[in-house]
User: What shape does this take?
Amino acid sequence: MTVLLQDLVYACRQLRKTPGFTITVLLTLALGIGANSAIFTLVNAILLHNLPVVDPKTLVRIGDKDDCCVNGGWNDNGDYSLFSTDTYYMFKKSLPEFEELAAMESGYAWRPITVRRAGPQTVAKSVMGTFVSGNYFRVFGLSPAAGRLFSDGDDQKGAPITAVMSYDTWQQDYAGDPSVVGSAFYINTKPATIIGVAPNGFYGDRIDTHPPKYFLPMNSIDTVIGAPYFNDPDTQWSYIIGRIKPGTSLPALQAKASALLKQEFTPLKTFTDQRAQKVLPRTHVVLTPGGGGIQNMQDGYKDHLKLLQWIAALVLLVACANIANLLLVRGISRKAELSIRSALGAQRSRIVRQLLTESILLSGMGGLLGLAVSYLGAHALLALAFPNQANMPVNASPSPLVIGFAFALSLVTGILFGLAPAMMAARTQPAEALRSNARTTAHGASFLQRALVVLQAALSLVLLVAAGLFAQSLNKAENVDMKLDATNRYIAHINPQAAGYKNTEVEPLYQSIVDRFHDIPGVLKVGLATYTPMEQNNWGSGVKVQGEPDINKGASWVKGSPEYFDSVGTRVVIGRGFKLQDTLNAAPVAVVNQEFVKQFFGNRNPIGHRFGFSGPSKTPQDGAHEIVGVVENTTYTSVYWKNHAMYFLPLTQRAGVANDPDPDNSIDKDQSMYAGALVIQTAHPIAGFEKIVGDTLASINPNLTIVKFQTFQQQIDDRFIEERLIARLTSLFGLLALLLAAIGLYGVTAYTVVRRTPEIGIRMALGAARGRVIGTVMRGAMLQAVAGLAIGIPVTIFCVRYVKSQLYEMTSVSVPVMAIAIGVLVLAAAIAGFIPARRAASIDPVRALRVE
Assistant: This one.
């Protein structure tokens, strides 16, 4: 310990004597380690984070896919992750290997609820709510923050409606008022009682940008939101997670669950179709760890986060190479000191240990600064990745795991960049102390120093090209002709069902909404639809054209009002759009897009043909809708979705099942009758339009609240958040690597000039021109840059194959991007080399010779 303390004190004294070197190293390390720790903070918070529940390691999910939200039909590969109510109860009864199994709603984010506390002058709010089984909180081993959590009795058919409030909602909306527990609320206009508050920190069974504020028993789902699928054995709507008993074999349990599911599916209406019977033998489930909850967000972000982690690691590698170069220069400049210490009896191991102590001390200090950088960087990353998400359950503060990661990274970095310089410096012979002033005429930077600069240049090129490719990909994606017009258009998401309207009552409501908004000065078009083009939503069905074979193809569908196409800027190219006469009792019609025509009709004119849903049905419905028009291929959901066949139906007409006598398909169970969005086109931007929209809706019905309000352009921009994040960060990391590489090249070139000062002085004394001196120095610098390019170009071309899936319509390196990256790197190298070259050409020969 005494020797260690001596080494630390000496290291501190040495670092204090060279403040420029110390600050440069610390900043370089802080940026390198900080970037890695910031990315790892996000990786840890999203990909590696467990739910805040008891013993998450014993939780197992039945299913492995990001399926959402209400599915019918079968999967061709037979892999199921969503389940019907009957299947949940069957698993719960037939799988004693689980201590308990809980079910939870898969798609609550698309079905917000309207909540109002009972009492005078209370305001209804549209919030996220989710429906769960009565043992939901018990399976997770949770205790209430106030009141009580659900019991099995709350989740029984006919039981009074109860709800559990999230802790954040209790604090933010009701200031932790204990009287909230036991008080009366109205949820979707239905009376309910708040029985308790969920524990602090619990955000539900998955990470989500809008975690649920209220939890309700799943047996109340039909009463509260009129969900017909709850009692439909052919419709899958829930995820299932359970806690397994000790000693349970997961492979055996998975095989048993798969066999049970196959038995459950066999008698269902879904599998009466001959094609369905062919895929029935492939039916299975995959058991996955459930400690992290449902992995929807993780599946969506993991590829981008892993890519960012690799890029940050490359930046750290460039930083390490830069610091190693600085330490090499410093070690060589201390040769005299080390020679004298060796001559006085210092052992080589002691010298190495001393120099390693300095480098590890530097890396430790850099790691602490890196933690500060990572804290700020992680918050900035969260703001970029999830803008305007105040309640996002992801903590950007460094966790013990992140702190441990930063410490380990600092230690490895210190050893990595300190060992080679320490070993080289320790090889100094005592006799060299006596020759320290010998004339040097040809020695410059060592091979290792030049190799490190070449490595930095190669890695910088890789990162610069990556930045260029992602920027070009983003630009191409954002500038696709989406066949949309976002100019002066606003979108207000609404929920008439949550406001208490029945399916049969919405037709006059929609007409009132259109009339009221047309009365607002400046409003041109008012469109209503089940969902809008660039929100993350999609409804789909199989399609069967009347009188033609079923070709086993499907299409997405949207229901809209007469002004819907005009409100989003979609043009009708053949026939007509919707009219006011296309009401519930009128003849069912449909408008299809050009891709639908291509897939189902080829070159034929589709006008007048009829189609309907394909699949098992008691009454054939392949002629439910007559095609009356064709619209252009407007982009829906994502620009990455190519060949997207779509059809559109009048908002108040039935979907695919017109005049069906089957009671299972009655109108009061048709969820598609409810509009989910209001699209308004105005003549010019209107200040405070969100309040105007809210007041207008409230004047129709106080429970008709805005779920979400944004401009159409904001909705489109939101679909590129991840791509924008990647493009910005790769650009930032690329520029940082370029800066570090330029500094490294400058340092080596400047060091070479200092070492060769006497030689340069003699050359100039003998008549060498300034230009020739500059050329000689520049040639050495540029050769290192060119060597870096020679390595970096093939490496870059090789690496593109691993990221091309994340690029829009790009499968190889773009020549312009490569040319620009090479040009930027060459320019940076030229600037970094020219500064010391110019200084070399300014050397006074007389003063240079006096140095000796």
Summary: Confidence is low (pLDDT under 50) at residues 436-443. The chain is about 45% helix and 15% strand.
